[in-house]
Amino acid sequence: MLAFGLGSPGGTLPRPAAAATAEPAFISEQVFAVAYGKIAEVYLQQVDFGRLGLDGLKGLATIDPTARADRQGNTVRLYVSGSLIGEYAAPSLSDAAGWAALTTKAVERARLYSPTLYQAVPERVYQVVLDSVMTDLDGYSRYTGTQRATSERAQREGYGGIGLSLEAANGRILIRNVLPRSPADRAGIRSGDQLLAIDGDLTARLTETDMRDRLRGPTGTMVLLTVARDNNPPRRAPIRRERVVPNTVNASVSEQVGVLKVDRFNAATASNLRDAILSTRQSLGKGLRGFVLDLRGNPGGLLDQAVAVADLFIAQGKIITTEGRHPDSRQRFEAGPDDIAEGMPLVVLVDGRSASSAEVVAAALQDSGRAVVVGASSYGKGSVQTVTRLPNDGELFLTWSRIYTPAGYTLHRQGVQPTVCTSRMGQDDPVTLLSDLRDGRARPMTQFAGWRARAADDEEALARLREACPWKEHEPELDLKVALRLLAEPALYQRAVALSSTNTVAER
Protein backbone atom coordinates (compact mmCIF):
# COMPACT_ATOMS: atom_id res chain seq x y z
CA MET A 1 0.00 0.00 0.00
CA LEU A 2 1.26 3.49 -0.83
CA ALA A 3 2.70 5.45 2.10
CA PHE A 4 2.47 9.23 1.77
CA GLY A 5 4.62 11.92 3.37
CA LEU A 6 7.90 10.19 2.74
CA GLY A 7 11.15 12.10 2.77
CA SER A 8 14.31 11.63 0.79
CA PRO A 9 17.22 10.15 2.75
CA GLY A 10 19.20 13.26 1.84
CA GLY A 11 16.53 15.92 1.44
CA THR A 12 12.87 16.81 1.28
CA LEU A 13 10.15 15.33 -0.88
CA PRO A 14 9.99 17.16 -4.24
CA ARG A 15 6.97 19.29 -4.99
CA PRO A 16 4.45 17.38 -7.15
CA ALA A 17 4.80 18.28 -10.83
CA ALA A 18 1.02 18.60 -11.17
CA ALA A 19 0.36 20.41 -7.89
CA ALA A 20 -1.03 23.52 -9.53
CA THR A 21 -2.42 21.98 -12.71
CA ALA A 22 -5.00 19.44 -13.81
CA GLU A 23 -4.63 15.75 -13.06
CA PRO A 24 -2.36 13.84 -15.48
CA ALA A 25 -3.92 11.81 -18.29
CA PHE A 26 -5.63 8.66 -17.05
CA ILE A 27 -3.59 5.45 -16.79
CA SER A 28 -5.80 2.37 -17.03
CA GLU A 29 -5.13 -0.43 -14.57
CA GLN A 30 -7.04 -2.71 -16.92
CA VAL A 31 -4.24 -2.53 -19.50
CA PHE A 32 -1.73 -3.90 -17.01
CA ALA A 33 -4.24 -6.31 -15.47
CA VAL A 34 -5.09 -7.96 -18.80
CA ALA A 35 -1.45 -8.05 -19.89
CA TYR A 36 -0.11 -9.51 -16.63
CA GLY A 37 -3.02 -11.93 -16.34
CA LYS A 38 -2.41 -13.25 -19.84
CA ILE A 39 1.30 -13.72 -19.16
CA ALA A 40 0.47 -15.73 -16.04
CA GLU A 41 -2.08 -17.83 -17.90
CA VAL A 42 -0.49 -18.75 -21.23
CA TYR A 43 3.24 -18.01 -21.35
CA LEU A 44 5.40 -21.01 -22.22
CA GLN A 45 6.96 -21.10 -18.76
CA GLN A 46 5.72 -20.03 -15.34
CA VAL A 47 6.97 -16.53 -14.55
CA ASP A 48 8.10 -14.61 -11.46
CA PHE A 49 6.07 -11.41 -11.25
CA GLY A 50 8.38 -10.15 -8.53
CA ARG A 51 10.98 -9.77 -11.27
CA LEU A 52 8.66 -8.85 -14.14
CA GLY A 53 6.67 -6.28 -12.19
CA LEU A 54 9.73 -4.54 -10.81
CA ASP A 55 11.41 -4.48 -14.22
CA GLY A 56 8.24 -2.95 -15.66
CA LEU A 57 8.52 -0.05 -13.22
CA LYS A 58 12.19 0.32 -14.07
CA GLY A 59 11.07 0.97 -17.63
CA LEU A 60 9.85 4.42 -16.54
CA ALA A 61 13.50 5.49 -16.66
CA THR A 62 13.21 5.34 -20.46
CA ILE A 63 11.05 8.46 -20.22
CA ASP A 64 12.58 10.04 -17.11
CA PRO A 65 16.08 8.78 -16.24
CA THR A 66 15.61 10.05 -12.66
CA ALA A 67 12.72 7.61 -12.07
CA ARG A 68 13.89 4.51 -10.23
CA ALA A 69 12.36 1.50 -8.51
CA ASP A 70 13.90 -1.15 -6.30
CA ARG A 71 12.84 -3.82 -3.87
CA GLN A 72 14.02 -4.40 -0.33
CA GLY A 73 12.48 -7.44 1.29
CA ASN A 74 8.72 -7.22 0.81
CA THR A 75 8.73 -3.52 0.03
CA VAL A 76 8.93 -1.85 -3.39
CA ARG A 77 10.32 1.68 -3.28
CA LEU A 78 9.86 4.34 -5.92
CA TYR A 79 12.20 7.30 -6.44
CA VAL A 80 12.20 10.42 -8.62
CA SER A 81 15.24 12.74 -8.79
CA GLY A 82 16.84 10.81 -5.94
CA SER A 83 13.92 11.30 -3.54
CA LEU A 84 11.78 8.49 -2.19
CA ILE A 85 8.20 9.24 -3.23
CA GLY A 86 6.37 6.01 -2.40
CA GLU A 87 6.51 2.60 -0.80
CA TYR A 88 4.40 -0.42 -1.66
CA ALA A 89 3.88 -3.84 -0.12
CA ALA A 90 5.09 -6.32 -2.76
CA PRO A 91 2.42 -8.85 -3.84
CA SER A 92 3.35 -12.52 -4.05
CA LEU A 93 5.49 -13.68 -6.97
CA SER A 94 2.44 -15.27 -8.66
CA ASP A 95 -0.07 -12.47 -8.04
CA ALA A 96 -0.51 -10.97 -11.52
CA ALA A 97 -3.49 -8.81 -10.51
CA GLY A 98 -1.65 -7.50 -7.44
CA TRP A 99 1.36 -6.46 -9.52
CA ALA A 100 -0.91 -4.80 -12.09
CA ALA A 101 -2.51 -2.73 -9.33
CA LEU A 102 0.88 -1.87 -7.83
CA THR A 103 2.23 -0.87 -11.25
CA THR A 104 -0.71 1.46 -11.87
CA LYS A 105 -0.42 3.14 -8.46
CA ALA A 106 3.32 3.55 -8.80
CA VAL A 107 3.04 5.01 -12.31
CA GLU A 108 0.40 7.49 -11.19
CA ARG A 109 2.54 8.50 -8.21
CA ALA A 110 5.67 8.92 -10.36
CA ARG A 111 3.78 11.12 -12.81
CA LEU A 112 2.83 13.48 -9.99
CA TYR A 113 6.49 14.13 -9.19
CA SER A 114 8.10 13.90 -12.64
CA PRO A 115 7.26 16.66 -15.17
CA THR A 116 8.56 14.43 -17.97
CA LEU A 117 6.35 11.49 -17.01
CA TYR A 118 3.45 13.85 -16.38
CA GLN A 119 3.61 15.13 -19.95
CA ALA A 120 3.93 11.65 -21.51
CA VAL A 121 0.77 10.32 -23.10
CA PRO A 122 -0.60 7.10 -21.56
CA GLU A 123 0.34 5.04 -24.63
CA ARG A 124 3.98 6.01 -24.19
CA VAL A 125 3.82 4.87 -20.55
CA TYR A 126 2.22 1.53 -21.47
CA GLN A 127 4.92 1.03 -24.09
CA VAL A 128 7.93 1.54 -21.81
CA VAL A 129 6.49 -0.49 -18.95
CA LEU A 130 5.36 -3.43 -21.06
CA ASP A 131 8.52 -3.36 -23.19
CA SER A 132 10.54 -3.76 -20.00
CA VAL A 133 8.31 -6.60 -18.82
CA MET A 134 8.63 -8.42 -22.14
CA THR A 135 12.43 -8.32 -22.12
CA ASP A 136 12.25 -10.82 -19.27
CA LEU A 137 10.48 -13.30 -21.55
CA ASP A 138 11.75 -14.72 -24.85
CA GLY A 139 12.71 -12.77 -27.95
CA TYR A 140 9.39 -13.38 -29.73
CA SER A 141 7.09 -12.14 -26.99
CA ARG A 142 6.39 -8.44 -27.40
CA TYR A 143 4.01 -5.57 -26.83
CA THR A 144 2.79 -3.60 -29.85
CA GLY A 145 1.38 -0.11 -29.34
CA THR A 146 -2.02 1.02 -30.54
CA GLN A 147 -1.03 2.53 -33.90
CA ARG A 148 1.20 -0.31 -35.04
CA ALA A 149 -1.19 -2.93 -33.69
CA THR A 150 -4.04 -1.47 -35.73
CA SER A 151 -1.93 -1.68 -38.90
CA GLU A 152 -0.79 -5.24 -38.18
CA ARG A 153 -4.35 -6.38 -37.44
CA ALA A 154 -5.44 -5.03 -40.82
CA GLN A 155 -2.68 -7.03 -42.54
CA ARG A 156 -3.53 -10.23 -40.62
CA GLU A 157 -7.29 -10.13 -40.36
CA GLY A 158 -8.43 -7.54 -42.88
CA TYR A 159 -10.12 -4.16 -42.62
CA GLY A 160 -13.18 -2.28 -43.79
CA GLY A 161 -12.24 -0.92 -47.19
CA ILE A 162 -12.62 -1.28 -50.95
CA GLY A 163 -9.49 -3.24 -51.93
CA LEU A 164 -6.93 -1.03 -53.61
CA SER A 165 -3.67 0.78 -52.94
CA LEU A 166 -2.46 4.20 -54.09
CA GLU A 167 0.76 5.54 -55.58
CA ALA A 168 1.91 9.12 -56.09
CA ALA A 169 3.50 9.65 -59.52
CA ASN A 170 4.34 12.92 -61.27
CA GLY A 171 2.02 14.93 -59.08
CA ARG A 172 -0.90 12.54 -59.62
CA ILE A 173 -2.49 9.90 -57.39
CA LEU A 174 -2.72 6.60 -59.25
CA ILE A 175 -4.60 3.47 -58.25
CA ARG A 176 -2.51 0.31 -57.92
CA ASN A 177 -3.07 -3.32 -56.91
CA VAL A 178 -6.84 -3.64 -57.17
CA LEU A 179 -7.71 -6.89 -55.40
CA PRO A 180 -9.68 -9.35 -57.56
CA ARG A 181 -13.37 -9.57 -56.61
CA SER A 182 -13.00 -6.63 -54.20
CA PRO A 183 -15.57 -3.80 -54.09
CA ALA A 184 -13.21 -1.61 -56.16
CA ASP A 185 -12.78 -4.36 -58.76
CA ARG A 186 -16.54 -4.89 -59.05
CA ALA A 187 -16.99 -1.12 -59.46
CA GLY A 188 -14.74 -1.17 -62.52
CA ILE A 189 -11.74 0.49 -60.88
CA ARG A 190 -8.50 -0.57 -62.59
CA SER A 191 -4.80 -0.28 -61.84
CA GLY A 192 -3.51 2.88 -63.51
CA ASP A 193 -6.68 4.90 -63.04
CA GLN A 194 -6.10 8.38 -61.65
CA LEU A 195 -7.86 9.14 -58.36
CA LEU A 196 -9.06 12.74 -58.45
CA ALA A 197 -11.28 12.98 -55.36
CA ILE A 198 -12.63 11.05 -52.38
CA ASP A 199 -16.14 12.02 -51.27
CA GLY A 200 -15.79 15.22 -53.28
CA ASP A 201 -12.48 16.31 -51.71
CA LEU A 202 -9.61 16.66 -54.16
CA THR A 203 -6.78 14.21 -53.52
CA ALA A 204 -4.29 16.96 -54.39
CA ARG A 205 -5.20 18.56 -51.06
CA LEU A 206 -5.06 15.36 -49.00
CA THR A 207 -2.11 13.65 -47.36
CA GLU A 208 -1.34 9.98 -47.88
CA THR A 209 -2.69 9.21 -44.40
CA ASP A 210 -5.87 11.20 -45.07
CA MET A 211 -6.53 9.26 -48.27
CA ARG A 212 -5.94 5.89 -46.61
CA ASP A 213 -8.22 6.76 -43.70
CA ARG A 214 -10.95 8.01 -46.02
CA LEU A 215 -10.87 4.86 -48.14
CA ARG A 216 -11.17 2.68 -45.05
CA GLY A 217 -14.15 2.63 -42.73
CA PRO A 218 -16.85 0.41 -41.22
CA THR A 219 -18.08 -2.37 -43.50
CA GLY A 220 -21.36 -1.51 -45.18
CA THR A 221 -20.64 2.22 -45.44
CA MET A 222 -20.21 4.07 -48.74
CA VAL A 223 -17.32 6.03 -50.23
CA LEU A 224 -17.49 8.04 -53.45
CA LEU A 225 -14.45 8.01 -55.74
CA THR A 226 -13.87 10.34 -58.68
CA VAL A 227 -11.54 8.64 -61.16
CA ALA A 228 -10.21 9.26 -64.66
CA ARG A 229 -8.76 6.79 -67.16
CA ASP A 230 -6.50 7.79 -70.04
CA ASN A 231 -8.03 10.86 -71.69
CA ASN A 232 -11.63 10.00 -70.87
CA PRO A 233 -13.83 12.34 -68.79
CA PRO A 234 -13.82 11.76 -65.00
CA ARG A 235 -16.48 9.49 -63.58
CA ARG A 236 -17.89 9.00 -60.12
CA ALA A 237 -17.94 5.54 -58.56
CA PRO A 238 -19.94 4.97 -55.36
CA ILE A 239 -18.48 1.90 -53.60
CA ARG A 240 -19.70 0.08 -50.50
CA ARG A 241 -16.92 -0.95 -48.09
CA GLU A 242 -16.44 -4.60 -47.20
CA ARG A 243 -13.97 -6.60 -45.14
CA VAL A 244 -10.81 -6.66 -47.21
CA VAL A 245 -7.89 -9.00 -46.52
CA PRO A 246 -4.67 -8.16 -48.41
CA ASN A 247 -3.58 -10.78 -50.94
CA THR A 248 -0.22 -12.28 -49.96
CA VAL A 249 0.01 -14.66 -52.93
CA ASN A 250 1.45 -13.90 -56.35
CA ALA A 251 1.33 -16.47 -59.15
CA SER A 252 3.40 -16.60 -62.34
CA VAL A 253 4.52 -19.20 -64.87
CA SER A 254 8.08 -20.10 -65.86
CA GLU A 255 8.96 -22.95 -68.22
CA GLN A 256 5.51 -24.53 -67.81
CA VAL A 257 5.89 -24.47 -64.02
CA GLY A 258 3.55 -22.59 -61.72
CA VAL A 259 5.58 -20.31 -59.41
CA LEU A 260 3.63 -19.39 -56.27
CA LYS A 261 5.18 -16.63 -54.17
CA VAL A 262 3.74 -16.28 -50.64
CA ASP A 263 4.87 -13.13 -48.84
CA ARG A 264 3.32 -13.89 -45.44
CA PHE A 265 0.41 -15.80 -43.89
CA ASN A 266 -2.77 -13.84 -43.19
CA ALA A 267 -6.44 -14.80 -42.93
CA ALA A 268 -6.84 -15.23 -46.71
CA THR A 269 -3.54 -16.87 -47.67
CA ALA A 270 -4.74 -20.47 -48.01
CA SER A 271 -7.82 -19.40 -49.97
CA ASN A 272 -5.81 -17.15 -52.29
CA LEU A 273 -3.20 -19.87 -52.82
CA ARG A 274 -5.91 -22.40 -53.65
CA ASP A 275 -7.33 -20.03 -56.26
CA ALA A 276 -3.87 -19.42 -57.73
CA ILE A 277 -3.18 -23.15 -58.04
CA LEU A 278 -6.52 -23.86 -59.69
CA SER A 279 -6.08 -20.92 -62.07
CA THR A 280 -2.57 -22.10 -63.03
CA ARG A 281 -3.77 -25.65 -63.63
CA GLN A 282 -6.61 -24.41 -65.79
CA SER A 283 -4.43 -22.11 -67.88
CA LEU A 284 -1.61 -24.61 -68.51
CA GLY A 285 -3.66 -27.79 -68.63
CA LYS A 286 -1.68 -30.92 -69.43
CA GLY A 287 1.40 -28.83 -70.15
CA LEU A 288 1.86 -28.04 -66.45
CA ARG A 289 5.02 -29.74 -65.13
CA GLY A 290 4.76 -28.88 -61.44
CA PHE A 291 4.83 -26.09 -58.90
CA VAL A 292 7.39 -24.00 -57.04
CA LEU A 293 6.23 -22.65 -53.69
CA ASP A 294 8.46 -19.66 -52.94
CA LEU A 295 8.65 -18.93 -49.19
CA ARG A 296 11.89 -16.96 -49.28
CA GLY A 297 11.76 -13.85 -47.13
CA ASN A 298 8.42 -14.92 -45.66
CA PRO A 299 8.43 -13.97 -41.94
CA GLY A 300 5.41 -16.12 -41.08
CA GLY A 301 2.02 -15.13 -39.74
CA LEU A 302 -1.10 -17.05 -38.75
CA LEU A 303 -0.42 -20.67 -37.77
CA ASP A 304 -3.83 -21.94 -38.88
CA GLN A 305 -3.11 -20.60 -42.36
CA ALA A 306 0.26 -22.37 -42.45
CA VAL A 307 -1.47 -25.64 -41.54
CA ALA A 308 -4.13 -25.00 -44.20
CA VAL A 309 -1.48 -24.29 -46.86
CA ALA A 310 0.42 -27.50 -46.06
CA ASP A 311 -2.89 -29.37 -46.09
CA LEU A 312 -3.54 -28.20 -49.65
CA PHE A 313 -0.76 -30.49 -50.85
CA ILE A 314 -0.60 -33.31 -48.25
CA ALA A 315 -3.25 -36.02 -48.61
CA GLN A 316 -2.65 -37.73 -45.27
CA GLY A 317 -0.45 -37.74 -42.18
CA LYS A 318 0.79 -35.32 -39.60
CA ILE A 319 1.43 -31.65 -40.40
CA ILE A 320 2.77 -30.42 -37.04
CA THR A 321 2.34 -30.80 -33.30
CA THR A 322 2.65 -28.06 -30.69
CA GLU A 323 3.50 -28.35 -27.00
CA GLY A 324 3.35 -25.81 -24.17
CA ARG A 325 2.35 -25.23 -20.56
CA HIS A 326 -1.29 -24.32 -21.22
CA PRO A 327 -3.48 -27.36 -22.01
CA ASP A 328 -4.88 -25.70 -25.16
CA SER A 329 -1.36 -25.23 -26.51
CA ARG A 330 -0.88 -28.98 -26.95
CA GLN A 331 -2.23 -29.70 -30.39
CA ARG A 332 -1.77 -32.14 -33.25
CA PHE A 333 -2.67 -31.16 -36.82
CA GLU A 334 -3.40 -33.86 -39.41
CA ALA A 335 -3.83 -33.50 -43.16
CA GLY A 336 -7.16 -34.00 -44.89
CA PRO A 337 -7.66 -36.57 -47.65
CA ASP A 338 -7.06 -34.35 -50.68
CA ASP A 339 -4.15 -32.84 -52.62
CA ILE A 340 -5.10 -29.88 -54.76
CA ALA A 341 -2.08 -30.47 -57.00
CA GLU A 342 -2.94 -34.18 -57.34
CA GLY A 343 0.60 -35.29 -56.61
CA MET A 344 2.28 -33.05 -59.16
CA PRO A 345 5.97 -32.37 -58.44
CA LEU A 346 6.51 -29.59 -55.89
CA VAL A 347 9.65 -27.66 -54.90
CA VAL A 348 9.71 -25.31 -51.92
CA LEU A 349 12.19 -22.41 -51.77
CA VAL A 350 13.43 -21.16 -48.38
CA ASP A 351 16.20 -18.89 -47.12
CA GLY A 352 17.50 -17.45 -43.86
CA ARG A 353 14.55 -15.06 -43.67
CA SER A 354 11.91 -17.78 -44.00
CA ALA A 355 10.51 -18.07 -40.49
CA SER A 356 7.67 -19.30 -38.32
CA SER A 357 4.65 -20.32 -40.42
CA ALA A 358 6.83 -20.48 -43.55
CA GLU A 359 9.02 -23.04 -41.78
CA VAL A 360 5.95 -25.02 -40.70
CA VAL A 361 4.89 -25.41 -44.32
CA ALA A 362 8.38 -26.25 -45.60
CA ALA A 363 9.04 -28.82 -42.87
CA ALA A 364 5.66 -30.52 -43.24
CA LEU A 365 6.03 -30.85 -47.02
CA GLN A 366 9.63 -32.06 -46.70
CA ASP A 367 9.07 -34.57 -43.88
CA SER A 368 6.02 -36.06 -45.59
CA GLY A 369 7.97 -36.58 -48.79
CA ARG A 370 5.56 -34.35 -50.67
CA ALA A 371 8.13 -31.75 -51.78
CA VAL A 372 11.83 -31.06 -52.23
CA VAL A 373 13.16 -28.08 -50.29
CA VAL A 374 15.74 -25.94 -52.12
CA GLY A 375 17.71 -22.96 -50.81
CA ALA A 376 19.39 -22.29 -47.47
CA SER A 377 18.72 -23.06 -43.82
CA SER A 378 15.63 -21.23 -42.64
CA TYR A 379 15.54 -18.84 -39.69
CA GLY A 380 14.68 -21.23 -36.86
CA LYS A 381 11.61 -19.68 -35.21
CA GLY A 382 9.84 -22.71 -33.89
CA SER A 383 7.35 -21.21 -31.48
CA VAL A 384 3.71 -20.13 -31.51
CA GLN A 385 2.53 -16.79 -30.14
CA THR A 386 -0.96 -15.96 -28.92
CA VAL A 387 -2.17 -12.44 -29.65
CA THR A 388 -4.19 -10.61 -27.01
CA ARG A 389 -5.90 -7.33 -27.76
CA LEU A 390 -5.54 -5.05 -24.74
CA PRO A 391 -8.10 -2.46 -23.53
CA ASN A 392 -6.05 0.36 -25.13
CA ASP A 393 -6.16 -1.47 -28.53
CA GLY A 394 -2.50 -2.43 -28.27
CA GLU A 395 -1.56 -6.09 -28.63
CA LEU A 396 0.42 -8.55 -26.54
CA PHE A 397 2.23 -11.37 -28.35
CA LEU A 398 3.14 -14.22 -25.99
CA THR A 399 5.00 -17.43 -26.80
CA TRP A 400 2.89 -20.30 -25.58
CA SER A 401 4.11 -23.40 -27.40
CA ARG A 402 6.94 -25.00 -29.34
CA ILE A 403 6.42 -26.43 -32.83
CA TYR A 404 7.48 -29.97 -33.73
CA THR A 405 7.64 -31.23 -37.31
CA PRO A 406 6.31 -34.60 -38.52
CA ALA A 407 9.84 -35.98 -38.04
CA GLY A 408 9.68 -34.95 -34.38
CA TYR A 409 12.32 -32.22 -34.29
CA THR A 410 11.72 -28.68 -33.07
CA LEU A 411 12.16 -25.81 -35.48
CA HIS A 412 13.40 -23.67 -32.57
CA ARG A 413 16.90 -22.46 -33.52
CA GLN A 414 17.32 -25.43 -35.89
CA GLY A 415 15.21 -24.32 -38.83
CA VAL A 416 14.55 -26.36 -41.96
CA GLN A 417 17.50 -27.88 -43.82
CA PRO A 418 17.13 -27.92 -47.63
CA THR A 419 17.59 -31.16 -49.49
CA VAL A 420 19.39 -29.15 -52.19
CA CYS A 421 21.56 -26.37 -50.72
CA THR A 422 22.24 -23.35 -52.93
CA SER A 423 24.14 -21.18 -50.44
CA ARG A 424 27.56 -22.78 -50.17
CA MET A 425 30.54 -20.72 -51.25
CA GLY A 426 31.60 -20.97 -54.88
CA GLN A 427 28.50 -22.81 -56.08
CA ASP A 428 26.43 -20.67 -58.40
CA ASP A 429 25.72 -23.00 -61.30
CA PRO A 430 22.47 -25.06 -61.24
CA VAL A 431 24.09 -28.06 -62.93
CA THR A 432 26.96 -28.15 -60.42
CA LEU A 433 24.58 -27.73 -57.50
CA LEU A 434 22.63 -30.80 -58.55
CA SER A 435 25.69 -32.92 -59.38
CA ASP A 436 25.95 -34.48 -55.89
CA LEU A 437 22.31 -35.45 -56.05
CA ARG A 438 22.71 -36.79 -59.59
CA ASP A 439 25.82 -38.83 -58.69
CA GLY A 440 24.44 -40.16 -55.40
CA ARG A 441 26.78 -38.09 -53.20
CA ALA A 442 24.14 -35.94 -51.52
CA ARG A 443 24.27 -35.78 -47.72
CA PRO A 444 21.69 -38.27 -46.34
CA MET A 445 18.88 -36.82 -44.24
CA THR A 446 19.71 -39.41 -41.57
CA GLN A 447 22.79 -37.34 -40.73
CA PHE A 448 20.56 -34.31 -40.19
CA ALA A 449 18.31 -36.45 -38.00
CA GLY A 450 21.26 -37.36 -35.80
CA TRP A 451 22.24 -33.73 -35.33
CA ARG A 452 18.64 -32.72 -34.70
CA ALA A 453 18.23 -35.35 -32.02
CA ARG A 454 21.10 -33.77 -30.05
CA ALA A 455 20.75 -30.11 -31.08
CA ALA A 456 18.40 -29.06 -28.26
CA ASP A 457 21.10 -29.75 -25.65
CA ASP A 458 24.29 -29.93 -27.70
CA GLU A 459 25.63 -26.65 -29.11
CA GLU A 460 28.17 -28.49 -31.28
CA ALA A 461 25.43 -30.55 -32.93
CA LEU A 462 23.38 -27.39 -33.46
CA ALA A 463 26.36 -25.62 -35.02
CA ARG A 464 27.02 -28.54 -37.39
CA LEU A 465 23.36 -28.54 -38.39
CA ARG A 466 23.26 -24.81 -39.08
CA GLU A 467 26.62 -24.81 -40.89
CA ALA A 468 25.54 -27.60 -43.25
CA CYS A 469 23.74 -25.03 -45.40
CA PRO A 470 24.35 -21.53 -44.00
CA TRP A 471 22.38 -18.73 -45.56
CA LYS A 472 24.21 -15.98 -47.39
CA GLU A 473 23.23 -13.39 -49.96
CA HIS A 474 23.32 -14.82 -53.47
CA GLU A 475 21.65 -14.37 -56.82
CA PRO A 476 17.90 -14.78 -56.13
CA GLU A 477 17.32 -16.41 -59.50
CA LEU A 478 19.72 -19.23 -58.61
CA ASP A 479 17.19 -20.94 -56.33
CA LEU A 480 14.49 -20.79 -58.98
CA LYS A 481 16.85 -22.03 -61.69
CA VAL A 482 17.74 -25.06 -59.55
CA ALA A 483 14.05 -25.73 -58.84
CA LEU A 484 13.12 -25.53 -62.52
CA ARG A 485 15.97 -27.82 -63.54
CA LEU A 486 14.95 -30.32 -60.86
CA LEU A 487 11.37 -30.30 -62.15
CA ALA A 488 12.64 -30.77 -65.71
CA GLU A 489 14.19 -34.12 -64.74
CA PRO A 490 11.54 -36.38 -63.15
CA ALA A 491 14.03 -39.09 -62.16
CA LEU A 492 16.27 -36.58 -60.41
CA TYR A 493 13.27 -35.03 -58.68
CA GLN A 494 12.15 -38.44 -57.38
CA ARG A 495 15.65 -39.10 -56.04
CA ALA A 496 15.49 -35.80 -54.14
CA VAL A 497 12.03 -36.66 -52.77
CA ALA A 498 13.33 -39.99 -51.50
CA LEU A 499 16.12 -38.17 -49.65
CA SER A 500 13.59 -35.74 -48.16
CA SER A 501 11.33 -38.34 -46.57
CA THR A 502 10.85 -38.39 -42.83
CA ASN A 503 13.65 -39.59 -40.60
CA THR A 504 11.96 -39.56 -37.20
CA VAL A 505 13.84 -37.87 -34.38
CA ALA A 506 11.27 -38.46 -31.64
CA GLU A 507 7.69 -39.62 -31.99
CA ARG A 508 5.18 -37.04 -30.71
From TrEMBL:
Q: Which Gene3D superfamilies match?
A: 2-enoyl-CoA Hydratase, Chain A, domain 1, 2.30.42.10, 3.30.750.44
Record SMART domains: PDZ, TSPc
InterPro entries cross-referenced by the UniProt entry: ClpP/crotonase-like_dom_sf, PDZ, PDZ_6, PDZ_sf, Peptidase_S41A, Tail-specific_protease
What are the protein's UniProt keywords?
Answer: Hydrolase, Protease, Serine protease
In which domain of life is the source organism classified? Bacteria
One Pfam match: PDZ_6
Q: Where is the PDZ domain?
A: 151-230
Q: Provide the family line.
A: Belongs to the peptidase S41A family.
Record protein name field: PDZ domain-containing protein
Species per Swiss-Prot/TrEMBL record: Azospirillum formosense
